[in-house]
Amino acid sequence: MPVTLNITKSKVAILELSRPEKHNAFNAEVIAELIKNIEYASGLDVRALVLKTEGKHFSAGADLAWMKSMADNDYNENVADSLELAKLMQVLATCPHPTLCLVQGAAFGGALGLIACCDIAIAEHNSKFCLSEVKLGLIPAVISPYVIKAIGERQARRYFLTAEVFDGEKALEMGLIHELSDDLAKSEANFLDTLLNNGPAAVKSAKALISEVAGKEINEALIAHTAKRIAEIRVSDEGQEGLSAFFDKRAPRWQTAASE
């Protein structure tokens, strides 16, 4: 199978695309498998989801043979195909668990959508990125809402139009990735340790809060909503445990459970 999902003892879902002979390019089968596994993982009691790929490169984006076959389809068939890719981006972006993306080598085209849809993205220092669609006479349409949200309209105005290759430093500067790493495995372990150290319900609630607040006008309704959200979590079992552990100078139960 080109896509595998494994759950670790610490309740981390590891989603891996294994198609290195095609530079982890995705086609209809890969997209369907990714959707299925992300949706399944979203319903599990896990603490995080890690997206990674096998081989030298993260992903070349859409498989050229698949794209050629779509070009032979009519407009309605192309819309249907594109909606599946759009669904992949949506289910990844809305996964209730914190998501961590690990990027090695090259990430081109639609691969930048996967990166932008994840909460945290780490890339190797020698990684390369490219919104390459216009080189093929196409546009990065389906991924555009997520990529523009990550890098901003001003940067999109350049890189959507030029299809320039840019390096990890530029990706970091633009906000596409959060950190450059000399050792992705070590960085993955560090980020997962950090995430698992926090209250599991609080982490999910904090992620949901971002969607509820980002881009909204600060008005009475939003203020009331945020007051309600903090009140709810303060009186929750996890909130009470976290506060008690802090004042008792002990580890909260979720930390001791994770270390067992």
Plain-language structure description:
The protein is 52% helix and 15% strand. By secondary structure, it is of the alpha/beta class. Helix 5 packs across helix 6. The longest helix is centred in the N-terminal third of the chain and has 19 residues. The mean pLDDT is 94.
Count all strands and give the number: 9
Mean pLDDT: 94
Low-confidence stretches: none
Helix content: 40-55%
Radius of gyration equals 20 Å
Overall 3D geometry? globular
Number of helices in the DSSP assignment:
12
Family: Belongs to the enoyl-CoA hydratase/isomerase family.
Protein name: Gamma-carboxygeranoyl-CoA hydratase
GO molecular function: catalytic activity
